[in-house]
Design a protein that fits this description.
Radius of gyration: 16 Å
Structural class: alpha/beta
Strand content: 5-15%
Distance between the termini: 19 Å
Number of domains: 1
Number of strands: 7
CATH topology: Rossmann fold
Order of helices and strands: HHHHHEHEEHEHEEE
Shape: globular
Strand order of the largest sheet: 2-1-3-4-6-5-7
CATH architecture: 3-Layer(aba) Sandwich
């Protein structure tokens, strides 16, 4: 069902592709330089062995998403890292990007929250550092997760947010104007 639905999601978000209509220099640089970065990173080849051959051959969506997690962690360069409720592959991609980051429980410089644990995000919001980033997986999975994502966007502690449909990215830098961006990823 997801393979049938994916093209319709892309068409519905067509006008939000690759930074079109984004006027913030920070958001545009983030979209072009991190979300849609095309360069091959040093760890892509060894990490691709985690995927079956048909995913590697077709560069299918799971591999794109995990490479995005790698780029996000590499972008933040966190001193502390928290991974809540993720699969082994996602955790491997994130920890490979920042091998010197200390893993903690709770709030950290970089927080990844997996599909079934979105409720864990709300208590962490007041404790997130100013230069922190939170990545939430499955924000449009059902009505409850959409409501949780909406509440996170509207929270006073959250700054700039990016909605990539499968992932939600929240920054906590309050020097930036609070804004919500939809990106066709």
């Amino acid at each position: 069902m997801k393979l049938i639905r994916r093209p319709w999601i892309w068409v519905a978000r067509f006008r939000h592709r690759r930074g079109y209509g984004v006027h913030s220099p920070f958001a545009f640089a983030f979209i072009k330089g991190v979300l849609f970065e095309q360069s091959a990173y040093y760890a892509y080849a060894p990490l691709s062995l985690l995927h079956p051959w048909w995913v590697r051959w077709g560069r299918l969506y799971p591999m794109q998403c995990r490479r995005l997690l790698f780029r996000l962690a590499n972008y933040v360069h966190p001193a502390t890292l928290s991974i809540i409720g993720s699969g082994a592959a996602e955790a491997t991609y994130i920890t490979t990007a920042v091998p010197n980051a200390r893993r903690v429980e709770g709030a950290a410089d970089f927080v990844f929250i997996g599909n079934s644990h979105l409720a864990a995000a709300r208590p962490l919001l007041p404790m997130m550092p100013q230069d922190g980033m939170m990545v939430l997986e499955g924000i449009h999975r059902n009505t409850a997760t959409r409501q949780q994502w909406k509440a996170i966007q509207q929270d006073a502690h959250t700054g700039v947010t990016f909605d990539l449909y499968d992932y939600g990215i929240a920054f906590f830098n309050h020097r930036l104007h609070k804004q919500h961006y939809i990106v066709n990823f």
